[in-house]
Amino acid sequence: MNRSATHIHTVTEFVLLGFPGCWEIQIFLFSLFLVVYVLTLLGNGTIICAVRWDPRLHTPMYFLLGNFAFLEIWYASSTVPNMLANILSKTKAISFSGCFLQFYFFFSLGTTECLFLAIMAYDRYLAICHPLHYPTIMTGKLCRILVSLCWLIGFLGYPIPIFFISQLAFCGPNIIDHFLCDMGPLMALSCTPAPITEFIFYTQSSLVLFFTIMYILRSYILLLRTVFQVPSAAGQRKAFSTCGSHLAVVSLFYGTVMVMYVSPTYGIPTLMQKILTLVYSIMTPLFNPLIYSLRNKDMKLALRNILFRMRIS
């Protein structure tokens, strides 16, 4: 009897309410998110092409940036297409398995993003604090190993806790007041409380966030200390330009994620939770290519070459 209670789901689908408002507002939001998504794909896709085609960008920093742009495409794709379909849908329903699949990909890609930002901070730290050792330490092989580890750790960290959450009994209401399947709303709909599973999940998420942000901050503190010792103003400007763009991305992503997953969200209004989720899941992948490419001379040159090639062809 106990076994059937934990394994039989009377809920076969969830209803994602998305954003409130009349049909005109829904059409406006659909158009806005569609434009943002298309720009995200174009911006990050252009960075991938530039890194691949321009020989000057065949360096560890740009190899990581190209992979990061690839990750951003998938991160945005884990939520936006479903959200767009949901806005136009009359029922706003998502299947039980579809909801948990989105939950898994959203968290796995988010974790991978945290690890990528830490590796990119390590790369900048080595390049500026240990420039003589940088070519021997940051080899192509090490870059490939680090990138592979990011994807592996990101995707192997969540299958077990998410599987256990999916095995809980969902027998009551199935309405999620959000635009995606997230931990808080799903746990609120479960008929059987699972404090241990919830604690493990939030501890795991908090540890990933805490250790990566502490490592990033440590790298940049050491890096800035070295920059201030650089005698030339031009050298300082170049270092600040590179690090400034990285720190802008880190602040935008971690600022909103930490408010959502480290601080208690009970006091945050539902609409505010949706807006915060929008910032780190949809706006960050859009801003990243702009921040990285517009503040970088080599990337600007590579992008110009790509546009020039496209015009000729």
Find the count of extended strands (DSSP E, 2+ residues): 3
- Return the domain count: 1
Figure out the total of helices: 13
Q: Which structural category fits the helices and strands?
A: mainly alpha
Oligomeric state as shown: single chain
* Uncertain stretches: 1-7
Rounded mean pLDDT is 87
Which band does the percent of strand residues land in? Answer: under 5%
Largest sheet, spatial ordering of strands: 2-1-3
Largest sheet: 3 strands, mixed
CA radius of gyration: 21 Å
In short:
With 313 residues, the chain is an all-alpha fold. The chain has 13 helices and three strands, in the order αβαααβααααβααααα. Strands 2-1-3 form a three-stranded mixed beta sheet.
How does this structure look, described?
With 313 residues, the chain is an all-alpha fold. It has one domain: Rhodopsin 7-helix transmembrane proteins (Rhopdopsin 7-helix transmembrane proteins, Up-down Bundle). Helices cover 76% and strands 3% of the residues. Strands 2-1-3 form a three-stranded mixed sheet. The longest helix is centred in the middle third of the chain and has 34 residues, at 96-129. The N and C termini lie far apart (68 Å). It is a multi-pass membrane protein. InterPro entries: GPCR_Rhodpsn, GPCR_Rhodpsn_7TM, Olfact_rcpt, Olfactory_GPCR1.
